[in-house]
From TrEMBL:
Broad class of the protein's primary localization: cytoplasm
Gene designation per UniProt: acpP_1
Organism (species): Poriferisphaera corsica
Listed SUPFAM superfamilies: ACP-like (SSF47336)
Annotated keywords: Cytoplasm, Fatty acid biosynthesis, Fatty acid metabolism, Lipid biosynthesis, Lipid metabolism, Phosphopantetheine, Phosphoprotein
Signal peptide: none
Pathway: Lipid metabolism; fatty acid biosynthesis
Residues modified as O-(pantetheine 4'-phosphoryl)serine: S39
Family per similarity comment: Belongs to the acyl carrier protein (ACP) family.
Descriptive protein name: Acyl carrier protein
Functional note: Carrier of the growing fatty acid chain in fatty acid biosynthesis.
Matches recorded under PANTHER family: ACYL CARRIER PROTEIN (PTHR20863), CARRIER DOMAIN-CONTAINING PROTEIN (PTHR20863:SF76)
Length: 127
């Protein structure tokens, strides 16, 4: 599949899962801040992506929130150096540069952009 075909399918999945319009689902749109996704929506999104692309996505593979609940990786509400290394190894599909500058746990949801989801799917399909 081409990048454009992947984007179009991801766009459709997000429109259906979140009840948003296609013009809102841009590559730079964040799932939480821009598209209004809540934690329960992430399960639905994963399920729909698995169906749309015929792939298996393990729990916390796309959204590794378990890192944020680990005291080895988070201290005083900020992700540690070890935590950043873990996130970078588990999320090669996401641009973590902006998050790396603040490292505040509450800012982590901004990492989940439409583009990050597309890159994740590209990686799954290539594997």
């Amino acid at each position: 599949m081409t990048q454009e075909e992947i984007f179009e399918k991801v766009q459709e999945v997000l429109e259906d899962a979140l009840g948003v319009d296609d013009d809102e689902v841009t590559p730079e749109a964040t799932l939480v801040g821009d598209l209004g996704a809540e934690s329960i929506d992430f399960l639905d999104i994963v399920f729909r992506l698995e169906k749309a692309f015929d792939v298996k996505i393990e729990q916390s593979e796309l959204f590794p929130d378990s890192v944020l609940n680990d005291p080895n990786f988070v201290q005083d509400g900020k992700v540690t150096d070890a935590g950043m290394a873990e996130l970078k190894s588990r999320m090669p599909h996401a641009n973590l540069d902006e998050f790396d500058s603040s490292r505040k746990v509450e800012d982590f949801s901004n990492v989940f952009t439409v583009d990050a989801v597309c890159k994740f799917i590209e990686g799954k399909l290539a594997a």
